[in-house]
TrEMBL record:
Sequence similarity: Belongs to the TACO1 family. YeeN subfamily.
Record keyword Transferase present: no
Organism: Lysinibacillus piscis
Region described as Disordered: 1-21
Gene for this chain: yeeI
Annotated protein name in UniProt: Probable transcriptional regulatory protein LYSBPC_26150
């Protein structure tokens, strides 16, 4: 799963290039999660997931509080959660998750981003079946063997654990996302470098030459869209 972890790193590095953009996207996501239930992460699983992710992106406290306060105040904005699927250069597969208050606008923007960048939209289900919903947790300060022991003692069966550049990456079932974090926190882990509920590809497509530049242009175009929250893909860029 090493290349899959690189996909996570690539996504984070890309998003980190625009602090204002990532903060705006998280502000929207936190607002929607808080409005969907109680504005308390201890009783609202969706909100807790978003807040855990926000920590790894260093989203400022005032952005988080503003979004939650807006939800508490009965904000009248309503957003639909949408998923688009499509294909990029060399048969790569792409999943696009969005939050929008204008479905027609978002569909048009996503379709245009694919069409103008060597890709094309697929129908629902054309791509997602080749990805697995997975909890991805990253941490430093412990070895893979130590993490494995901690998780085994907590009766958590990770799909895979790997160590890379002094970072341990855990792949687990989505429903074990919080249990794994709590077990690690109890063992002295104070913060996580990654805390994602991600869509990881079952197989990857290795890109070379011009296809790499074409693919990166497509992903940039999709991530630049205001309504797009996450983009997942199965490209191996060979880095």
């Amino acid at each position: 799963m090493g290349r899959k972890w690189n996909n996570i790193k690539e996504k984070k590095a890309s998003k980190d290039q625009s602090t204002s953009r990532i903060n705006a996207k998280f502000g929207r996501e936190i607002y929607v999660a808080a409005k969907s239930g109680e504005p308390d992460p201890e009783s609202n699983r969706a909100l807790k997931v978003v807040l855990e992710r926000a920590k790894t992106y260093s989203v400022p406290k005032h952005i988080i509080e503003k979004a939650i306060d807006k939800a508490k105040g009965g904000g009248d904005e309503n957003f639909d959660e949408l998923r688009y699927e499509g294909f990029g250069p060399a048969g790569t597969m792409v999943i696009v998750d969005a939050l929008t208050n204008n479905v027609n606008r978002t569909a048009s923007d996503v379709r245009a981003a694919f069409g103008k960048n060597n890709g094309n939209m697929g129908v629902s289900g054309s791509v997602a079946y080749m990805f697995d919903s997975t909890a991805v947790i990253g941490l430093e300060g412990k070895t893979a063997d130590e993490v494995l022991e901690i998780l085994m003692e907590a009766d958590i069966d990770a799909r895979d654990i790997l160590e890379e550049d002094e970072t341990v990456i855990i792949y687990a079932e989505p429903d074990q996302f919080f249990a794994a974090q709590e077990a690690l926190k109890a063992a002295g882990v104070e913060e996580f470098t990654v805390a994602e509920l991600s869509m990881l590809p079952q197989t990857e497509v290795a890109l070379t030459g011009d296809d790499i530049a074409k693919f990166e242009k497509l992903i940039d175009a999709l991530e630049d869209l205001e309504d797009v929250q996450n983009v997942f893909h199965n490209a191996d860029l060979g880095e």
